[in-house]
Design a protein that fits this description.
Number of domains: 1
Number of helices: 8
Order of helices and strands: HEEHHHHHHH
Distance between the termini: 43 Å
Helix content: 40-55%
């Protein structure tokens, strides 16, 4: 399940497109939400640090949290460029995301929880153990079987639907951390003293006179 940078960027863009604007927390940093619908409460206080669970109860049990951490690291493992997804708090991000009381998040909660149950059951069926207890080779084989919905066997399509959304959440969580941004070379809102012109190589590639 190791991914290259081009694939990572594609996943990151897909994740950004699929994530709705809600009050999520990643490593204690509040994010503004724009919803004014009744019953959702008010925006977080922006000069206050929130811990996971401060805004609403979290969802994942300890066994589910361990499973999420293993799955996250199957998708984005540690390599020479960056730490693993679990090392930068992505499991906590996913727990916070699926616990939020918004329509899209509620849908994701149902999908993710069903998917976690499904992948453990499938691991039991294939390997005689839960996914976390399986070997890395066994985990990789199962993940490869559900990596892409269009290629999944009919009996695995529910698992593939879960994995597609889980992968988007993992990428969205990871690539909004400083480590994830650094991994893809994103500089962000950093002041620079000058604005150099495009290189001659780039101008030639674009066909600009």
């Amino acid at each position: 399940m190791n991914i290259d940078r081009r694939t990572a960027i594609q996943w990151m863009l897909a994740a950004y497109a699929s994530l709705t604007v809600t009050p999520t927390l990643l490593r204690g940093r509040p994010v503004i939400h724009l919803s004014a619908r009744p019953g959702y409460g008010t925006d977080p206080v922006l000069n206050k640090t929130y811990n996971p669970g401060d805004l609403w109860p979290l969802t994942l049990t300890e066994p589910q949290h361990r499973l999420v951490a293993v799955l996250c690291d199957m998708i984005i493992p540690e390599d020479e460029h960056s730490p693993s997804a679990s090392a930068v708090g992505v499991p906590a991000f996913i727990d916070e995301w699926i616990s939020a009381p918004y329509d899209a998040n509620t849908h994701d909660r149902e999908l993710i929880l069903r998917g976690l149950t499904w992948i453990d059951a499938e691991a039991q069926r294939r390997f005689g153990c839960d996914f976390v207890a399986a070997t890395e080779t066994q985990r990789t084989a199962l993940c490869d079987a559900i990596s892409y919905r269009e290629h999944a066997a009919p009996a695995l399509r529910d698992g593939a639907q879960f994995f597609a959304r889980f992968r988007d959440l993992t990428a969205g969580g990871f690539y909004t951390t400083p480590e994830g941004m650094k991994d893809v070379g994103y500089i962000g809102n950093v002041p620079i003293a000058s604005f150099p012109a495009p290189s001659a190589e780039l101008i030639a590639k674009l066909g600009i006179d």
